[in-house]
Amino acid sequence: MVYRRGLQAIPLSVDLWLHYISFLKDCLDSSEPDTEARIRSVYENAVLAAGTDFRSDRLWEAYINWEMELGNLANVTSVYDRILGIPTQLYSHHFQRFREHVQGNLPKHFLSLDEFIRLRRELAVVNGHSGEEVPPGDDIPPGTEDLTDPAKLVTEIENMRHKVVESRQEVFNHNEHEVSKRWAFEEAIKRPYFHVKPLEKAQLNNWKEYLDFEIENGTPERVVVLFERCLIACALYEDFWIKVTMES
Fold it and tell me: In the 8-state DSSP scheme, what is residue 145?
């Protein structure tokens, strides 16, 4: 109850979300069938509340590491697909880890069923084989069975890995461009927390210019998150409170 009240008050606190999740992991019985779903639900609430914060990387990494520990490789890919499109401080690190994830696992394990079958069909057309030489087993969905020719199987795996990374590269490149637009603003934030001591004029100007930029160029979600961050550091300055009411 205390954690929930705290998170209602400061939903952008990555530290508080991580402490809450750690508390749940310690308290919940891992043998209960709904424990995994409950923890995943809290991770989802956490990234929805704070995941667009420029400095939310630790939260995303914790979510990914937890799914990886459970062996849910397709879920790991799904989480990466989200963070790779969000401008954060460690955006490049996430892409590097994603490539390691792809290279270290088999495509049929880390891809969703739909994406795996789609890529297999695309490669089959390019390589001139249909995959029909392998009848699916009773417990294997059609289109997911391994090729019988070892050489073709190895080639398919490597080609599929390449296409998976290639398809995310475009997203990463766009995200890198978005990060570069915000980097100077973020670097200029010297006191992101509340303090009764007055902020320097340069800090106030930076917040104002950053808000104006995000209002003009960002998504509504990013605008809301930036206002919430700003009002923590600039809580004593009525101009920012007026600005948020005008933009609401």
Answer: S
CA angle 210, 5, 194 (to 5 degrees): 35
Measured distance CA(133)–CA(136) in Å, rounded: 10
CA distance 142 to 117: 9
How many Å apart are CA 94 and CA 88, to the nearest integer?
Answer: 9
Question: What sign does the dihedral 206-211-216-220 (CA atoms) show?
Answer: positive
Token look-up 């199987």 returns: 153
Here the tokens at position 109 are 């394990």
| Chain position carrying tokens 């790779």 | 84
Q: Residue 185 in contact with residue 209, Cβ under 8 Å?
A: yes
pLDDT the model gives residue 152: 78
Using one digit for the tens of pLDDT, what is the confidence trace for 132-176? 444 444 444 555 566 566 777 888 899 999 999 999 999 999 999
Whether pTM > 0.85 for this model: the answer is yes
Two structure tokens written together for 226 = 């930036």
Query: What is residue 147's three-state secondary structure?
Result: coil
Instruction: State the average pLDDT for the chain.
Output: 91
Say if residues 226 and 210 touch (Cβ distance below 8 Å): yes
Q: Is the model's pLDDT at 215 over the cut of 80?
A: yes
The token pair that represents 46 in the structure block: 């956490």
| CA–CA gap between residue 110 and residue 113 (Å, rounded) | 9
Can you tell me the distance from the alpha carbon of 229 to that of 194, in angstroms, rounded to the nearest whole number?
A: 10
